[in-house]
Design goal:
The chain is α+β, with helices and mostly antiparallel strands and 394 residues long. The chain has 8 helices and 22 strands. 19% of the residues lie in helices and 33% in strands.
Length: 394
């Protein structure tokens, strides 16, 4: 057997350009492995007593809930507010109006137009709101406090009072009528509560006081609504048509307008007083419109009386066969020489002063057709009183 040739020696390794290699120590890796093992043991098993004491002791963070401190009883004012909301809120409704919409030859469909508030008037399904809440809508839906939704039909409206009555077919058990109060004895400073749906947020309660009384606001027909309540209870878009309540939870007004440069609540809201509401709503339910008593005269425009320096309502003409004619009221006429002879000037009706057409209509609407009312007039610079039988306006 022949022997292998001798193996030549290997050449020495080339020197590393990075310098001589250093051996990496093993102990940092072992320490990291030990630390990971400890963390795993602490996370998966019971904590040692020394660690529990460290976490719960001074300077440590506790994972336990803080103890609850018992509170004192609610104040009498808080209890009253809660009771008012619980009593009145089931009567407050959310109104959504719809408008027709179509594109070219496509079918017309309905889209949401706006939202507002209202309240249940009786168990027959009548709901009261502002006319401007539903104006221009093709249909409306009413959502009750239990979130059930009902299609509404229009019963009637009074544009001069910005009031409207809808009707829904909900069961009587779902229709708790709101308690009705009075507005004639309100006082500035007394507590008030507003419930409505501002910005679509249903069943919202705000509180405030009666800020002023006897305000006037413009209706949709530009006629003045007299005797309006001013309040600082927050009223925002969507509150319109909702109730304003007193501290007994009774309806004292219908939230209607706000005075605000931004369109949101500025602490100046207005509500149509309930005495007007309680007079108008029954007529809307029965007749679908407001019964208007009239004297049977043709009055002069306010601008005419202002130019003439007249305080009151000047009669231009008296209708044939009217109560005014039977009572002997005179209209404006011309003399034989063409000079103008002013007719009677109405200065009071039914004991209420008359300054202009708005105050005349306001005084008349406190009465019904067929009633006979005292009318104070100014004739030949002398004041006299006559009695006029009112008739229904056509």
């Amino acid at each position: 057997m022949s022997s292998l040739p001798p193996i030549p020696p290997l050449p020495p390794p080339a020197p590393s350009p990075y310098g001589p290699r250093r051996r990496t120590p093993v102990w940092p890796f072992l320490l990291a492995l030990l630390a990971a093992w400890l963390v795993f043991q602490l996370a998966s098993g019971p904590r040692p007593d020394w660690l529990q004491r460290q976490l719960k002791g001074d300077g440590g963070a506790s994972a336990d809930p803080r103890p609850v401190v018992p509170r004192a009883d609610l104040t009498a004012e808080e209890k009253t507010t809660i009771a008012i909301f619980k009593q009145a809120s089931p009567s407050v409704v959310y109104i959504t109006t719809l408008a027709p919409r179509g594109f070219g030859f496509f079918d017309v469909f309905q889209v949401p137009q706006g939202t507002g508030s209202g309240f249940v008037w009786d168990r027959e399904g009548h709901v009261v709101t502002n006319l401007h809440v539903i104006q221009g809508a093709s249909s409306a839906r009413v959502t009750l406090a239990d979130q059930s939704e009902w299609k509404a039909s229009l019963v009637g409206y009074a544009a001069d009072r910005d009031l409207a009555v809808l009707r829904i077919g909900a069961p009587r058990a779902k229709l708790p009528p709101i308690l009705v109060g009075t507005s004639r004895d309100l006082q500035v400073g007394q507590k008030v509560f507003a419930i409505g749906n501002p910005f679509g947020l249903d069943q919202t309660l705000t509180t405030g006081v009666v800020s002023a009384l006897g305000r006037s606001i413009e209706s949709l027909t530009n006629r003045k609504i007299q005797g309006v309540i001013q309040t600082d209870a927050a009223i925002n878009p969507g509150n319109s048509g909702g109730p304003l309540l007193d501290s007994a939870g009774r309806l004292i007004g219908v939230n209607t307008q706000i005075a605000s440069p931004s369109g949101a609540s500025a602490g100046i809201g207005f509500a149509v007083p309930v005495d007007i509401v309680n007079q108008v709503v029954p007529q809307l339910i029965v007749h679908g419109r407001l019964e208007r008593p009239q004297l049977g005269i043709v009055p002069a425009d306010d601008r005419v009386t202002e130019r003439l320096g007249v305080k009151g309502v000047l009669i231009l003409d008296v209708s044939e066969g009217s109560g005014a004619q039977r009572a002997g009221l005179r209209g404006t006429r011309r003399d034989r020489d063409g000079s103008l002879i002013l007719g009677d000037i109405i200065v009071a009706v039914g004991g209420r002063d008359v300054h202009d057409l708005d105050s005349l209509y306001d005084a008349l609407e406190r009465h019904k057709p067929g009633e006979t009312v005292p009318v104070k007039i100014l004739r030949d610079d002398r004041t006299r009183e006559v009695y006029v039988a009112l008739q229904e306006a056509k």
